[in-house]
Amino acid sequence: MAIYFLGWTAQYEQRFVSYLAERYDVGRTPDRKGLVRLHRIVKKILGARCAGLLGRLYCKLAGFSGSDMLICNEGQIHRKLNPAILEAFPGIRILVVRDLVDSAFLTRWRSHFDAIYSFDQFQCARLGMQVMNQFLPIGYDEKRMVPVCADGSPTALFIGRDKHRSRSLLALAELLKACDYEVDFRILVDDSTQERSAYHITSLVSYAQSLASTLSAHVLVEMNQPGQAGFTLRPLEAAYFSKKLITTNPAILQSSLYHPNNVYVLDGPETWDAERLRAFLESDFYPLSKETIFEYSPDYMLEFLISRHGAAVREPAPRS
Predict the structure, then answer these.
(1) What backbone torsions phi and psi does residue 185 show, to the nearest 5 degrees?
(2) What is the mean pLDDT of the chain?
(3) pLDDT by residue (tens digit) across 227-250?
(4) pTM here?
(5) Given 3.30.565.10, 2.40.30.10, 3.40.50.2000, 3.40.50.620, which CATH number is that of 141-289?
(6) Where are the domains of the chain?
(7) Would you place residue 311 in the very low, low, confident or very high pLDDT band (cuts 50, 70, 90)?
(8) How many other β-carbons are positioned within 10 Å of the β-carbon of residue 223?
(9) 88 with 63: CB under 8 angstroms?
(10) Which CATH entry fits the domain spanning 3-137+297-309: 1.20.58, 2.60.120, 3.40.50, 3.30.1490?
């Protein structure tokens, strides 16, 4: 059984796929630029009818078998030749939904997959998907290779799109400044932005830049978008790198990632209190167990899918 990732093209996605490829029989789908160009040209002449043939040709050239697994994500399955590759793939097909979707999306794609997973438990209950843990794109065995944050003025970090969150973020910024924290908020302007502040930016932050900023910060901020109950990457980064977390997601209170010294939940007017927040910021960080950290790693994600849908070709590297 070989495992392939289709459409995982972002920097952080390429990182964890490369990490997993060192430990399992894992790889990205082969880059067949010639077929993609041919699809683009022929589609103009013959329409969508050519896609099925090119998808089957792609799978034949790649050597996919019925025992292989294809792992897709909701953001890329509709792009270029991906739908045809998915349709022609002879093995197990898995969809990992990382963002909020609607019933129309599931109606369009459900029949193409053997299983559909989401990180958001409320979304799973509402739309009939299966729950899986969010995972950090840094491998479990990479953790000890990451440098420790240097001492300095305490800083709170937020990086993300606006998504109707700027008002709450600006209020939190004032609260943090009242607690003598430096505020490093980078709110990416989007269609929801009504008024720009000194914290708004117009250029994407690369994963490498985001990771470097995460390592140097003392507190990470997670501000969930309306309707979101699943974890973003912030709680995982906080746990991996021993950072404190401020979040608006009360679901973390029931999670193995929660400890009152490590996580402050903004949920209700009484939690927006400078003295309460200051007491949290001044408390000692409580280290989480290795077992808990592992549950939110790409290693665990892949072993979870393998345990449900197949078996690894070779044993993963031992964890120490």
Answers:
(1) -105, 130
(2) 88
(3) 788 899 999 999 999 999 999 999
(4) 0.84
(5) 3.40.50.2000
(6) 3-137+297-309, 141-289
(7) low
(8) 23
(9) no
(10) 3.40.50
